[in-house]
Structure formats: structure tokens, C-alpha cells
Amino acid sequence: MARPLALTLGEPAGIGPDIAIAAWLRRHELSLPAFYLLGDEALIARRAKSLGADIRIAGVVGSEQAEAVFADALPIVETGVVATAEPGRPDESSAPAALTSIRLAVADVIAGRASAVVTNPIAKSVLYRTGFRHPGHTEFLAELASANGRLPQPVMMLWSPTLAVVPVTIHLSLREALAQLTSELIVSTVRIVAAELKSHFGVSRPRIAIAGLNPHAGEDGSLGHEERTIVAPAIKELRSENIDARGPLPADTMFHAAARETYDCAVCMYHDQALIPIKTLAFDEAVNVTLGLPFIRTSPDHGTAFDIAGTGKANPASLIAALRLASRMAAA
Length: 332
Known about the structure:
The chain is of the alpha/beta class. The protein has helices at residues 16-25, 41-51, 63-69, 94-110, 124-128, 137-144, 174-180, 183-201, 226-240, 257-260, 271-281, 317-331; strands spanning 5-8, 35-39, 57-60, 74-78, 117-118, 155-159, 164-167, 207-211, 244-249, 265-268, 287-291, 297-300. Helix content is 39%, strand content 16%. Strand 3, helix 3 and strand 4 (74-78) form a beta-alpha-beta unit. The model has no long low-confidence stretch (mean pLDDT 93).
């Protein structure tokens, strides 16, 4: 029997508790894989009551117990951090509650107690006020996965049945992204994408479409030189390694239906170049996947939505998709 998924609490004042409860309530209807939530049982009980959710909660001490009770109760592994935040109002408990949940979930997967980590949304602004130094989840997970002082290269993929995209540079200002973009970074990113499409997504020969940086992919040098000096040399190197990479392609013509049929993943040069098209085409079903780690991690592709936390309006579709994808990747 497959090990359950470890689901993190996320920002306790956000919609993470709401969508965790909503997903569990649909477990039979959707045949969801077993999961357990790492968090504060009292917080989940309060949130369920405010949502009017008919839910049974079971405190468990490990993944085996979680799997045994999942059909009848939402399993919660206590993190030891009391979360006092009310819906929409983060407080001093928010950051320690969110970060401890992530650390323990990663530890469970590395130790073999869970098959994958699924993370609920965090509020980076809340974490920054407590000294959190990472740009986001992706970089924090890389630190937790480090071994012998060596950090893995985390690669952020946004996946949906409609489109999969990867930004080469992630949580950086546009100015910083341009400064950090190199042929070497493109090559190392695409190597990871191609390898994981084979190992975890069942794509025997991944087709990678690579965007240019400038409008119209530089218009043959008249709108910028980066396509010639950075992107094209990277593609040449990748093709020499028998990776099916093509480009640089104009980003404004890469994402219509006919174009999407010609590749398995679009690799883009900066954050919004990748995320705008997938959030436009597949907002409710897109899943954030971190590639390049020694464990599987997925996440809903949305934020904490403080304005609707505790109201019952939060849509669990992206979390449900993240749970299903994590289970599929673990099985592969």
C-alpha cells in the first residue's frame, strides 16, 4: 500500500485549513489519495466549526495511523506549535506554525514515512517579518534538502493537463532576473526538467520549447542580443546531449492551442513569462511542482487569499490537483 501524503498547514490565517478540510470531505467522491495534515488540531477544529463543516478530526502520531483513519477522519499530526491566528489575520504564531509544518513534512518524506510533500500556501510577507530569508517555498525546500553543505538546484514547474511551464529565473525582480540569466543556468534547468518528465511524468522523450527573452525573440538581433548570446548557445548544448530542445521562440506565439500540442513543457526566461499563460489557461487546475529535489513536492498554484479565509468560498480544486499529482509522481 502506498504511503500517505504529508500536507503542510500553510499560513494558518489563510485558506490552507479551509481547502484541506474541503478536500478531505470529497475524499470518497474523488477517490483521493490518503494524506495527513501537519498542524494544530485545535486550529483545524475551530476552522471547521466556522465553516460549518461536518468533519471528524483524529490526532495521530504517525503516517501508519493516518492511513488507518483517513477514510473516517481527517488525520492531524501535531507539530507542537499552537496556531492562534484567526481567518484573515496573521499573528505571531503564523510563521512558526507554517515553517515547522514544512520542516516536519520534509523530514517525514526523507525518512520514508510519507510518499510526498504537498504544501499549502504561505504568506511570504508574514515570514519576512520574522527574519525568513528565502524568496519563497522553492528555495526553502532546497535548503531543507541540502546534504553535506550542497544545495540542490530547485526548479519550479507549474503543471496542468493543459500546459506545463518552467521559469529559469524564479522569485527575482525583473532587473535581477536579467542579470542572473546565463546559458549555464538554462542548460542545468532544462536537464532537470527533461530528466523528471521521464522519471515522474512518464514522457519517454520530452519535447522542450524554450522561449526567447526579448519581444519576438529579439527580432534577429534588432530587439536584443540575449537570444544569440545566451539562449541559442544553451539550446545548442542541450541538443548535443540528445535533449529535444528547440527555440528561442517568441513567447507571444508559444501558448495558443496548436503551439501547445508541439511540446511537453515550455521553459521561459523569467517568472511572469511562464506564470501568466498557465494562470490564464488553467488557474483552478494548475499545480506548483518543485523539481530537482530528492523528494516530491507539489502545491496549489494560488496564495493565501486572506479575504475569503474562513468564509467557505475557497475553491479546493488546485489542492485536489496537487494531491493527485503528488500521488501519481510517487507511484512513478
